[in-house]
Amino acid sequence: MAYLILLIAAATALVTGILGTLLMCIKHRCYTVLFGSLLTIVWLVATIFGLVLVGLNMTSVEVLEAFCTKDVAGEGFTGTLQTFVKNSIDDVDASMASVVNKQMCSKVCPCDTTTTTKWFAKTAEELKPYGRSPP
């Protein structure tokens, strides 16, 4: 989901840049209105996204620690938003850990012998706090 949002944002930025460049050549009023409307939508989305990030960033130390260590149980819109963000972060972490676990010290991403020796010496209990599993 996060990758899709980034892909859409990148495509929108690219299209907006191309349309802005074409604005120098195309002097018709309709094109200017179309570009201005698209630019307004992009500005509005970026502003809302920034305000949400600022709102999530301006939390107390206690709330931040609770967010990182245990289940989030907030009330109203803020609690729902925090739960959504926490679930999204957990999903990305799980998918990245899965990819790393499959590729680590394999033919795709070989490790030197000192790293491999340390990696194979670890038990499942030692790797569990890091969300990793032994090879």
Task: Identify the notable features of this structure and list them briefly.
about 140 residues, mainly alpha, 2 domains, about 75% helix, flat
Please provide a written account of the structure.
By secondary structure, the chain is mainly alpha-helical. The protein folds into two domains: 1-69, no CATH class; 92-135, no CATH class. It is 74% helix and 0% strand. It has helices at 2-22, 29-57, 61-69, 76-103, 113-121, 124-127. The two termini are 28 Å apart. The model has no long low-confidence stretch (mean pLDDT 77).
- Quickly count the helices: 6
Number of domains: 2
Helix-and-strand structural type: mainly alpha
Calculate the mean pLDDT score and round it. Answer: 77
* CA-based shape: flat
- How is the biggest beta sheet arranged? none
Q: Compute the gyration radius: what is it? A: 23 Å
The share of residues in helices is over 70%
Distance between the termini: 28 Å
Unreliable stretches, pLDDT < 50, 5 or more residues?
Answer: none
Question: How many β-strand runs?
Answer: 0
The H-and-E topology, N to C, reads as: HHHHHH
Q: What proportion strand?
A: under 5%
